[in-house]
Specification:
The protein has 734 residues and is of the alpha+beta class. The chain starts with 19 loop residues before the first strand and ends with a helix. Residues 1-63 are annotated as: Disordered.
Length: 734
Amino acid sequence: MQLKVPPPPARGRTLPPDETMQLKVPPPPERGRALPPDETMQLRVLPPEASGSPSARHKTEAPSALTRVTAYLEPYTRRLAPYAQRLAPYARRLRPVYPRPGRAGWRRWVPSWRQSVGAVLTSIGLSSVFLVIAYAATDIPDNLNSYATQQDNVYFWSDGTPMARTGWVQRQAMPLKDIPEDVRWAVLAAENASFYSDPGISVSGIGRALWRTVGEGDTQGGSTITQQYVKNVYLNQNRSVGRKFTEAMIALKLDNRMSKDKILEGYLNTSWFGRGTYGIQRASQAYYGKDVSKLNAGEAAVLASLLKGAGLFDPTLSKANHARAVERWSWILDRMVDIGKLSKSERAKYKKFPEPLKQNPLYDTGEQSDYLVELASQYAKKAAHLSDQDFDLGGFQIYTTFDRKREEALTDAVTKARKAALKDDPKTAKTAHYGAASVSDDGRILAVYGGPDHRKQGYNESNATTVPAGTAFLPFVYAAGLEHGVHKTRSGSATPVTPQSVYDGNDAVPVTTPEGPYWDRNGDQVAAHNDGNKNWGHITLDQALANSVNTPFMQLGMDTGLDKVRATAVAAGLLSSSMGPQVPALSMGSSTPSAIRMASGYATFAADGQHTEPYSVRRITRNGSTVAMPTPEASRAVGSEVAGAVTKALTKSFALAHPGAASATAQVAGKAGTTEKDTASWYVGTATSVSTAVVVYRIDLTKSLEPLPLKGIAGTAANSVPYGIWSSAVSPLG
């Protein structure tokens, strides 16, 4: 036999997809037949995409539902094929003849009993095939219903008590191991006692639901806990036959892939219990004011009854609701006895209906707590590297550093001062702002005052970098001089400075450099001024800080180096972004630190020169699991001796300004701060290792962020409003 193959195409040329080539292939000769010489067959060259080439494989799309069903059924059809071939002749003989021959009139149209049985069996067979196909074609959705799994974030005071919660829903997921068995079985007794043995659906229940849908136009009943969980997290709440069928298919598949405990855990954490709560944990807190781990069987039965419909079974809503709730509560407890999950003796303990709380006690944010939540959430996301999207999904428990007693004392002190100002000078006080913060020497932010109400003013006055620090900045200049020494010439080593170093304390002393007087850009010689233009003569640095004499420190800053003054202030806790320009005014407090940062800076001196970055969150968990978050570590800002000298001078400053305000043994140090243009008034002081900074200033937020003159709203040197707030906030705490 001979094959005639045409020559290959010329180099560089491929065959077009539709070009054919003829191969003369003689067919096998039949018996008694000669071989025709010119009999041919055609081979068509197909394009690469139609072949099994790699390019075609890369373009393959995801399999369709029909493909998946075919693949799923292929092993079964292959096994049944031989039997089907054997039964085919019998099936043809059994094919009914219809209308029935040999019958007249209407009897021709009445099926025989064989036909009726055949129709029923065929319907059952087709239904079974349909269900198998539907099961194979149904996939468990990859994406959960985000609303069903969203949780709230809960914030706690430093003592562990709840402070606030945030989020669109009240939900906190709990591991099943943390939910008592009595609580679990109260729910199972009420909703699905056969949960651990059923296949995930209830056929009779689905039948009832479908009957009601077709007959009465609604869908209800018939849902196992697995089906309810599927509806909560994978589907919507639409009432339709299609949704009910999809729910059943997913429930069957989920029951095969997920453990019963996991399904129950998911159900308990996503179900609606009324009062704005999702999940058994929030329901326990909303109705009984305690965690789910502390519920007894009687209380659990009340919560389980709410799954039937909180609008009908919340006993606090109406007398009718109360009666229904008591009846169902009793039935659930009896049902727990029937299924062997509660003994009769235990059941006898629950004779009195456990009345839930009248109102949801879960903490909402408002007024000051909003400012605390804002600070804590910002810190938590940054420190734990949490994205906004992840954080907003909720489930976090944020344990803050805020001290409830200190927060209340600080808020009360500022509130009284604000009311007094509004009474004495309402026009000026209308634009007055009060910022305050307390920071411990280990960096914990214990309290802040951010404003009158976060819902009316989101501007956080404790964290604002708007007004200058004024003479409250002098301790940082003093610390820089003690730490680095001074240079009277441009070259050579630094000359050490001690608290007893003497400077000119007179008013209007010109500022000098090694080359001579310092001139500003306007050609004017720069000079410092003291409060009240008072002349103090030659004075030691220790005395100058104790008496708040300004002129020595402007010159000390120049001698030390403004770059070193800046670096010392930043190392102690002030933000570099808030620092003023490196001109002589820097030493007079041209920088604009927040109250939190000023308190942190003074806390560094109280901590023997060790600075810890201020932080507002000490621990984070998510649904009981710890979230990794480092705690700030202390670093050396200034030497221990330098910090001690600054603290000693500030202690003298407090004693001189407020004699008798503290006992001789009390560890209290502090200093007032004023600004040249009277735009801010400060008091920063430390008592028992906690530094508190208070600032009063005026800004008309409807016009600009430019500070306005105080016009007496902050009091006088003898009767300072910031000091009054500081004293009132600190005194009750001892």
